[in-house]
Specification:
With 167 residues, the protein is mainly beta. It has one domain. The protein has one helix and eleven strands. The strands form three sheets. Strands 1, 2, 5, 8, 9, 10 and 11 form a seven-stranded antiparallel sheet that branches. The protein is globular. It starts with 7 loop residues before the first strand and ends with a strand.
Length: 167
Amino acid sequence: MSEFSIDIRTLKTGAVAVDGGMGTTLTEPGEIHENTVKVNMADDTVTPIKNIKGKSVIVAIEGGNIDIAYDIITFDVEVIQDFCGGTLVGTAPNQMWHMPKGTQPIIEKSHEIVDGQGGTWELARVQVSGKLVGAFSKTEPNVIRVKGMVLEPTKEAVGAIAYGNKA
């Protein structure tokens, strides 16, 4: 096991397993814009429970949200639909993506990130939403900006995040 975790080799996504655990059929969604992949664990909420004398007798700790964000450079209608919902009209190669109307769909995916040292981050259940960011620049690509919140897996004994070297 490496003593540090830096850079990224791959990011793969796929359907959450039927049993509520980590998905097993994962693929790269396309080219990921460099330096955009971030996993952030927010601070816990600590609530001291006090007795009538004003002394803390119990401390309740609620874990903070875990968020993930990244930009996909591959600007393809099928990838857009996969992360943004909506519908595709036409047949390839003549297809148009149409944004969903009203409430955005709930899209859940498993994520696997392999860092530069070969360590594997597994996020079994992530609710994602994508949006299009059009830069229309010669130096900055148009991207699918993906943001997600890590949810508790419904499978027993599977954590929201797992990290280490896979067998």
